[in-house]
C-alpha cells in the first residue's frame, strides 16, 4: 500500500446491525442475526423487540479524537446520542491497521429495545468530530414484497 493510499484510510465508522449482541465470558462479542444492507419486515407499523448496533470508530493515532458526538438516526430523527470529550485523555485503545500504522479505536455497543417503526426508513450511525462528520453504512428497513400473481 502506498503512502497516499494510507492517508486515504483516515477516520471511518464501521457499523453492524443485528438482532442481538452477547458479551461472552472471554471478552468476545457474539453477533446474533446480523443484517446486511436491508431488513425486511412483514408489515408496518411494527415494533421490533430489540435491535443491536455495534459501532467501531477508527482514527489514525496521530489524529486522536477530541470532542465527539455519536448519533444513531432513524431517517432525520435522533434515536440515541452520546457526547464524549476525549481531549487530553490519551489513546483509548491503540491498535495497528493492516500496514502496521498505529490507529485509535472506540467501540460502542447499543441495544434499542423496543424500536417502533411506522413505515419504511433508514437507520444510520453518525459521528460528529472536530474534523467533521464520519458516517457508517446505513440499514434500509422495508416491507417484504407482496407475491405477484401470474
Helix and strand layout, with pairings?
Layout: H1 3-9, E1 12-23, E2 29-35, E3 38-41, E4 46-48, E5 51-60, E6 67-74, E7 77-85, E8 94-96, E9 102-112, E10 115-117, E11 121-129, E12 132-135, E13 139-143
Parallel strand pairs: 3-13
Antiparallel strand pairs: 1-2, 1-5, 4-10, 5-9, 6-7, 6-11, 8-9, 11-12, 11-13
Describe the protein:
The protein has one helix and 13 strands, in the order H-E-E-E-E-E-E-E-E-E-E-E-E-E. The protein has a single domain (3-143), classed as Immunoglobulin-like (Sandwich). By secondary structure, it is mostly beta strands. Helices cover 5% and strands 59% of the residues.
What does this entry show, briefly?
With 150 residues, the chain is mostly beta strands.
Sum up the structure in keywords:
mainly beta, 13 strands, 150 residues, globular, 6-stranded mixed β-sheet, single chain, Immunoglobulin-like
Q: How far from one another are the termini?
A: 53 Å
Helical amount: under 10%
* Class of secondary structure makeup: mainly beta
The Cα radius of gyration reads 18 Å
Sheet with most strands: 6 strands, mixed
What number of domains?
1
Q: Identify the CATH architecture.
A: Sandwich
Question: How many helices in DSSP terms?
Answer: 1
CATH class annotation:
Mainly Beta
Number of strands: 13
Following the backbone from N to C, one meets helices and strands in this order, namely HEEEEEEEEEEEEE
Basic shape: globular
Q: How much strand?
A: over 45%
What fold name stands as the CATH topology?
Immunoglobulin-like
Low-confidence stretches: 1-8
Q: What value does the average pLDDT take?
A: 87
